[in-house]
Amino acid sequence: MHAGTLNATARNISLDEKVAFLARRDAYAHAPASIEKIQTHMSWVFLADGYAYKLKKPVHYEFLDFSSVEARRLNCERELELNRRLAGNVYQEVVPLVLRADGRLQLGGDGEAVDSLVKMRRLPAHKLLDAAIRGGTVGAEELARLAELLIDFYRHAAAAQLSPAAYRQRFAQGIHANQRGLKAPYAGLDEELIDHLTRAQHDFVARHGELLEARAREARIVDAHGDLRPEHVCLEPAPVVIDCLEFNREFRLLDPVDELAYFAMECGQLGGAEVGAYVLRRYGDAAADHPPPALVSFYKAFRACLRARLAIWHLADDGVVNTGKWRQRAREYLGAAASYVAHW
Q1: Domain ranges in the chain?
Q2: Model-level pTM greater than 0.90?
Q3: What pLDDT, in 10s, does the model give residues 198-213?
């Protein structure tokens, strides 16, 4: 395998140097024809022909700490383990990025580990559910197989020990956090609408908190996926769901109806409301779990506000150019939240 020469030690190799190396074709043993790199909040992803390699950024937020080489390695191992629940044949191995004795970087092999990457099988883009919804190509049998996968997943998911009061309080705190994030000085959003949505959600928790508490009391909360969006679903003959929230277990402790309401909300944003509604209905029938529609609307409104907040979070990233894109996305989510609030 070829390697990139660096005049550096393992302690001061920068993220930029690692990214530059991994963007080279000769960094990979299988000699890909091309490399495509994608940046997210927390990672760099390198698409190398039939494989994808994910490198965690050395970031430290309130909800995660990737600041050390060891923390990133442990997270990669956790990502591999947890994502194999719904995408076992996609997540292949954790590959070390090493510094050889001659000062060269190398992907895999002997040397001092300076980082770790998750190696995955690359999925066909046209089979991702978001693309299929946009293209109107979602098949009934494909959707039925996805529903069965998720039903089985929730049936066997580990139950969470969460008290009814703690579950209710989680939403009260989350509503406040969403409001605070959406009203950041750089957000540029309609603060009157944000306050309206915040009041409506707090009012729901105050008046209908028993609906939330009942979900925990009935042991409905499980270690779920955490980020069930259409772009994380691939409609292969055996469907797979990738990119669970591996970095914070608290974010994965969810009511399946909440997670599937979130999924339905995201499908609706793409014009595929019937897709999300079908999966949610199939789950409810299989699990004999049909909570009041007002609770489903609350879950959707809360998740829409959270997604708006995360869209605005992008504006705080260094180097963001298309700020209008993220503001528009936040406005669309807030508009969706307003429509859900009107239903309770």
Answers
A1: 4-122, 129-341
A2: yes
A3: 999 999 999 999 999 9
